[in-house]
Design brief:
The complex is a heterodimer. Chain A has eleven helices and 21 strands. By secondary structure, chain A is α/β, with parallel strands linked by helices. Chain A folds into two domains: 327 residues, Rossmann fold (3-Layer(aba) Sandwich), CATH 3.40.50; 97 residues, 2-Layer Sandwich (GMP Synthetase, Chain A, domain 3). In chain A, the strands form five sheets. Chain A has a nine-stranded mixed β-sheet with strand order 4-3-5-6-7-8-9-14-13. In chain A, α5 packs across α6 and α9 packs across α10. Chain A is globular, with a radius of gyration of 22 Å. By secondary structure, chain B is an alpha+beta fold. Chain B folds into two domains: 66 residues, VC0802-like (2-Layer Sandwich), CATH 3.30.2130; 71 residues, VC0802-like, CATH 3.30.2130.10. Chain B has five helices and seven strands. In chain B, strands 1, 2, 3, 4, 5, 6 and 7 form a seven-stranded antiparallel β-sheet that branches. In chain B, a hairpin with a 3-residue loop joins β5 and β6. Chain B is globular, with a radius of gyration of 16 Å. Classes of the chains: A alpha/beta, B alpha+beta. Bound molecules: zinc ion. The site of zinc ion has 6 residues of chain A, from loops.
């Protein structure tokens, strides 16, 4: 049941000692990068001062913007000839961010992913259809090599091309898929449209959900649609990619591998550490990567640490599912709202279909929030009053969650735009 | 017993056109149509010559559609005939949930379509009182 029993179940004191040793090595390594040399000089920090995870608090945070401005080589700690691969985040809004990997870095990352896959039961005999995009994005290649290391038959089909996905699912009887949750919902409607039953006509047993925060209700719905277990995963390219944190069989929080990272949760406003169990922004320090060391990286992802030991026996702590991003939160009539809160409510209502969107507008100096919800055809009985009652119920349940009442509009199934990649849910047309 | 097809539709331009086009392409004739709407959406009720087929083609297009039993009563197209039906139903405590009518032959016959809670009971009450009810086949031949 463990890929690396000694590390995964390492007593906390030993894990702490390992973190301390690896941190010291990382700090030395960081001093080879122009960015951290500059940063330490500016803030008069001596590298020897940073010995234990607690000492990290003297180091300023690193942000995505720092990575951007450091393009191309400010964060590189090894000679370029030692680098065997780079990954880059989409540079649609300016300079991209780049993460470099040595051969050893890739080997460790692959091991990290294999550890996660093995944890949820992926084995040599599995057929793994990797429905994430390959290329600069880490979701495809990262998971690919982990699955190969376990020895599973790995199909590098990539993202999109729904008809081909279905054909492969059917003919190769894939047992494991790696998929974006909103696409899993969309895919199921297309599967049904082809007259197939995702529970009966496929052989799926494990679904790895990634690249997009989603609610517990969405997970349950996906499990129900496909008749397979779905596991949440977390990763970001700055911290390697997939494999950063992963649920175990208990499906109650994601183990974050503390031999790879030092984990902090901070209040995004004050940047002070959050009390245990309180949600805040996840901050990570790489301690097991040579080419691109990053100290105290602000992930923008909101989560909380689960300190209680897990019944699976792993000693690495868990984080709760990502509750949102500090930058996708929106403010409506003075209330902070995460799109995830809306999703949680909608996916908990059986009559609601798989697609929805939130539209924010400003009319006559007043903000309006409209939630467009697709209804499921099988819950339509020709009755206008029932629909109106459903609409009112959705409004009331949303109000209970987000404390303001949005306008809910029921729309025809399939009428909202769909994307094969990450779904855009919030459309903010408010102009100040 | 007759059947009507109900379709969920948003209140936006082109919805009726879409439904009508799907039915026309399947060579289905619409005998009557009514639309009721609330906050941004509505239900379109359609009486057609081939309800089962209409239900299937609309469903294939992904529309939320429902096939529903209704009562189609033949009325003389004269003043007071609607009142006679309504009186019989009221006297027997039958609550009408929805109703609409259409004229088949000007000055001669009209059809009243009614949707009630207890279909069989309403049917036998109306038949006992001498009303003619139409089946799907009879509507088809109209
Ligand atoms: Zn566990």
């Amino acid at each position: 049941m463990y890929w690396e029993k000694d590390v995964e179940t390492m007593p906390r004191e030993e894990l702490y000692a390992l973190q301390t040793a690896r941190l010291q090595k990382t700090i030395q390594n960081a001093m080879r990068t122009p960015f951290y040399r500059r940063l330490f000089t500016q803030h008069r920090i001596h590298p020897e001062q940073i010995k234990t995870p607690e000492d990290l608090k003297h180091v300023p945070f690193t942000t995505k913007e720092d990575l951007r401005q450091g393009f191309p080589f400010d964060f590189l700690a090894v000679p370029l000839e030692e680098v065997v691969r780079l990954h880059s985040s989409s540079g649609t809004t300016g300079t991209p961010t780049v993460i470099y990997h040595t051969k050893e870095d890739l080997d460790r990352w692959t091991n990290q992913v294999a550890r996660c896959l093995y944890m949820v039961g992926v084995r040599k005999h599995d057929v793994f259809q990797n429905m994430m995009s390959y290329g600069l994005f880490t979701g495809g290649l990262g998971m690919h090599y982990g699955a190969e290391r376990i020895g599973a038959l790995t199909i590098p089909i990539g993202a999109g091309n729904t008809k081909r996905q279905i054909w492969f699912l059917k003919h190769f009887k894939s047992t494991v898929i790696h998929i974006i949750p909103s696409y899993a919902l969309l895919l199921s409607t297309i599967i049904r449209g082809e007259g197939l039953d995702p529970r009966k006509d496929f052989n799926l047993r494990i679904i790895l959900l990634g690249a997009e925060p989603h609610s517990e209700e969405t997970r349950r719905r996906i499990e129900d649609i496909y008749g397979a277990k779905a596991y949440n995963s977390y990763g970001l390219s700055e911290m390697n990619g997939p494999g950063g944190a992963f649920e175990c069989l208990y499906q109650n929080g994601m183990h974050i591998w503390e031999d790879y990272y030092i984990v902090e949760i901070v209040n995004p406003k004050t940047l002070e550490p959050c009390p245990p169990g309180e949600p805040g922004e996840l901050v990570l320090t790489t301690i097991f990567r040579d080419a691109t060391p990053i100290l105290r990286y602000r992930t923008r992802d909101v989560t909380a640490l689960i300190e209680e030991p897990c019944p699976c026996g792993r000693t690495h702590r868990k984080i709760t599912r990502i509750q949102g991003r500090t930058d996708d939160m929106f403010i409506f009539r003075g209330v902070n709202i995460f799109p995830m809160q809306v999703e949680k409510v909608l996916m908990g209502i059986p009559e609601v279909g798989s697609n929805y969107r939130i539209i924010l507008e400003r009319k006559d100096y007043e903000d309006t929030m409209r939630v467009e919800v697709e209804i499921k055809p099988e819950f339509f009985f020709g009755d206008l009053q029932k629909l109106e009652r459903l609409r009112e119920r959705i409004e009331a349940e949303l109000k209970a969650e987000i404390l303001v009442t949005p306008e809910v509009v029921l729309v025809e199934p399939g009428s909202l735009p769909t994307q094969e990649g990450k779904a855009q849910r919030v459309f903010d047309y408010r102009v100040l | 017993m007759a059947h009507q097809v109900s379709v969920f539709a948003e209140n936006k331009p082109g919805r009726i056109e879409k439904i009508a086009r799907i039915l026309a392409e399947a060579h289905i004739n619409i005998r009557a149509i009514t639309i009721s709407s609330a906050n941004g959406f509505g239900v379109v009720k359609i009486l057609v010559d081939q309800p089962q087929k209409a239900f299937e083609v609309l469903r294939e297009q992904g529309l939320p559609v429902y096939l529903q039993e209704v009562i189609a009563v033949v009325l003389e197209d004269t003043p007071g005939s609607l009142h006679r039906v309504a009186k019989v139903l009221a006297e027997n405590g039958i609550n009408v949930e929805d109703a609409y009518g259409f004229v088949v032959e000007r000055g001669k016959a009209a059809i009243l379509v009614i949707q009630v809670e207890h279909e069989p009971q309403a049917q036998s009450v109306l038949e006992r009182n001498g009303f003619t009810l139409l089946s799907d086949e009879e509507i088809y031949r109209l």
